[in-house]
Amino acid sequence: xxxxxxxxxxxxxxxxxxxxxxxxxxxxxxxxxxxxxxxxxxxxxxxxxxxxxxxxxxxxxxxxxxxxxxxxxxxxxxxxxxxxxxxxxxxxxxxxxxxxxxxxxxxxxxxxxxxxxxxxxxxxxxxxxxxxxxxxxxxxxxxxxxxxxxxxxxxxxx
Length: 158
Prior knowledge:
By secondary structure, the chain is mainly alpha-helical. Helices cover 79% and strands 0% of the residues. Helix 2 runs antiparallel to helix 3, helix 3 packs antiparallel against helix 4 (59-71) and helix 8 (129-141) runs antiparallel to helix 9 (145-156). The longest helix has 21 residues, at 34-54.
C-alpha cells in the first residue's frame, strides 16, 4: 500500500489513487494488529477519496469507497455505507454493481424478497453465474423449490 501510494503521489491520477486505496484495503484483513488495520483503513479511505476528487464521475471509485464504510462502519454512524450505496442507487438506478452489493447486503440481513428483487434486476442487466448462484440461495431461503431448481442448474453450468 505504501509503495502504491508513493506511485499515486507521483502520477497523481485517479487510477493510481484507486489502486493505492484498494491495496491498502486488501491489507486491512491481512493485519493482526488493530492499529495497523486502522492505519490501512484510513489510508484506503483517503486514497479512494483522492481518486473520487480527480474523477468524480467514476462510479466504481464511489462504490469501492461506500463498500469500505459497509464493511467497517463508523461507530457513530453504522448505516453510513448502506446510506452511501442507496444514494448511489438513486443516482444510478441501472448500475448492476450497486444493485448486486445491495442484494448481498439484503441476503446478509435476511431480507430475501428485497434481495430477490435486486438480483432479478441485475440478471436483466448482466446475467452471470454469480447472479444465478445468489438467486438459487435466495429461492432456497424463500422455499421456492421451482425457482431454486432452475437457478441451481444455471449456477452449476460451467
